[in-house]
Structures are given as C-alpha cells and as structure tokens.
User: Which sequence fits this backbone?
C-alpha cells in the first residue's frame, strides 16, 4: 500500500489557493521517503506552472494529475472512436451500436500468448 499524504494537520497554503516552491517542498516532505532539493522542487513547479507566475494553482495541479492519470489508464472507448473518425471521417463506426463500436476500437489482445 502506498503512503497516504495527510495535509489536514498543517496548512501549506497562505489562503490564496496557490502553492509556492517553498509550500510545495513542505508538502512533498510530508511523504515518507521523499527528499527533494529546492532546485528539484523549483524544476517541478516550473514544469507544472502553466501560466508562468511561479506558483502552482489548483487548476494547474488538477490538470497535471488528470494528465498523469490519462497516461496511466489510457484512452477511453469514446476517445478511441473519435480518433478513428479523425483518421477516417467516412468511417461507418457511428452506425454501429455503442457496444459493438467499443469492441471495434478496443486494442485486440494477442491470442498467441
């Protein structure tokens, strides 16, 4: 089981819904076994900071978490259908019942293994 992060005991935000480099470092240090230098945390914050203001706001953090989740989980069937339509707008996939369309776009498992 992965360690749980308890942020309820100490607030790291100054009430502005922004995480500065120092606040983000303090939050990361609450996770057992993780140690980051200030330079490493600055690099992470710069990567996540979409608007370039030097802080991570809640929307930027939410976006990063969702992006990481999508990479881990993969594309859902509706996105795969949309991808197929982008490649071939004349595809007949929209004429199929939904369950059959999902079967058409799901990656095929290798039956040889």
Assistant:
């Amino acid at each position: 089981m992965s360690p749980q992060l308890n942020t309820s005991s100490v607030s790291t935000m100054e009430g502005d819904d922004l995480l500065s480099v120092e606040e983000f470092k303090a939050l990361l240090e609450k996770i057992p076994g993780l140690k980051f230098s200030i330079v490493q945390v600055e690099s992470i914050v710069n990567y996540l900071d979409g608007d370039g203001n030097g802080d991570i706001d809640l929307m930027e953090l939410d976006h990063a978490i969702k992006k990481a989740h999508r990479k881990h989980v993969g594309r859902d069937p509706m996105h795969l259908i949309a991808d197929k339509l982008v490649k071939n707008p004349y595809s007949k996939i929209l004429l199929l019942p939904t369950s059959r369309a999902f079967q058409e776009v799901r990656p095929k498992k290798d039956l040889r293994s």
Observations:
- Residues 58-73 form the longest helix (16 residues).
- The mean pLDDT is 81.
- The helical segments are 21-28, 38-48, 58-73, 77-87, 98-105.
- Residues 44 and 89 are 40 Å apart (CA to CA).
